[in-house]
Input
Amino acid sequence: MRDPLKDKNRLEHIVSAIDLILGRVEGMKYEDFVADKLLFGGIVYHTMIIGEAAYKLSQEFRESHAQTDWQSIADMRHHLVHGYYQVDPSIVWSVVQNELSPLLEQVKQYLAETNWEEWEKQESQTKN
Output
């Protein structure tokens, strides 16, 4: 059995997915974004990774970092997965253009400011 991912790992996955998305769409126009179906699908996939990682963060972490709207991020993932047949490219584009950079900065700040050894120690005590 695999070890469960910890909050730090999930935040690192969010950073990786955002870096990949932003690196790929830099300088791109909306028309090019929607015309490339494979690119669009890849962006949607990595947006789902961001949402899944946010959804799987511990309740304690989400509550102690409530300035990030974790629920909206998870809701976007649920919509992309379960409503795949009605994904609006303009909404995905808006998220990519307006939401990912601020989220990236927040998550990087959480990664830098959190004492992960202490956090994981508290997490294991809470679960026992």
Q: What stands out?
A: The helical segments are 7-25, 30-35, 37-56, 59-64, 70-82, 89-98, 100-113, 116-127. The radius of gyration is 16 Å.
